[in-house]
Amino acid sequence: MHRRTLLGAALAAPFVLSAFSLAIASPATRIVALDLLATELLLTLGITPPAIANRALYQRLVAEPKLPADVEDLGPLTEPNAEYLQMLRPDLIVLSAWQAGALERLGKIAPLHVLRSPARDVPAVSYAADLIRELGDVTGRSAQARLWIDRTALALADAKKALADRSATPLYVCRFAANGRNVAIFAGNGMIGDVLQQVGLANAWRGRVNASGVVSVGIEQLSGNPDARIVHFDRGAETVQALSRLEESPLWNALPAVRNGRVTAMPVIYPSGGVFSAIRFARQLAALLPAEEHHG
Fold first, then answer.
1. CA dihedral (95, 97, 101, 107) positive or negative
2. 3-state DSSP assignment of residue 58
3. From CA 291, how far away is CA 288, in angstroms rounded?
4. Continuous H helices in 113-262
5. What is d(CA 36, CA 195) in angstroms, rounded to the nearest whole number?
6. pTM for this one?
7. pLDDT of residue 296
8. pLDDT band for position 167 (50/70/90)?
9. DSSP string for 140-164
10. 171 - beta bridge partners?
11. Over 243-289, what HEC string results?
12. Of 117, 140, 208, 228, whose CB count within 10 A is highest?
């Protein structure tokens, strides 16, 4: 109970509106998303954008919440179709801080709401809660935002309880590069690392990660903890290609986790996602991790 109280307090922390956000007279109803996280947040709040940037990338890397078939594609994240965007006449355009400088001109079409970047020392789940609370206020969906923040806290607590007998085995959580030689490992305060910590699981990676909680290394780096389990995200054709090459790799086949059958695949989770992604990952860990192995 004490931990849940602390978690609730963290998720309820005050938020700061982006300096790029423009005040609008009433809650927006036609909202376009130009970033993957922005799309996830809108769909989580029950808002279907008429169009988003890079529809195919959202479906491949984020996947859920599912994107309705009638949502139009505005093209690349860095160069959305401004002419078509103008034809749509949106009430609001939501984008991320990394896009703001290049796409500031789109403010002539509709007010911009820029999702601020996370601070390196702020855990990703708390950051995601702040964002959905902020966007809920901007769009008139404050009640829905609060509901999703509560659902996130409950999902993490439920997963921690379900995983209590599996918490002794550390995990490398990663995605394989198609070349079969490199792997992206997740840790730190990023979404994947933060959820692991909050559900009581140990991260096997002890090295450095970037501000997003990820580092790209050679496949041999997965040998650092011989008792660890490897959990990897299935990214479709890219993962099929990677696994095909890994099967022929002496380095891969020599890894203790591979030799002992401690490799688990799970559906892709967007590592820079919002509360919906955090809930999905916590539930997938609880559902897909096998019973605890006993070493010694």
1. positive
2. helix
3. 9
4. 124-139, 142-162, 191-198, 237-246, 250-254, 256-259
5. 19
6. 0.86
7. 40
8. confident
9. T-HHHHHHHHHHHHHHHHHHHHHTG
10. 203, 229
11. HHHHCCCHHHHHCHHHHCCCEEEEECCCCCCCHHHHHHHHHHHHHHC
12. 228
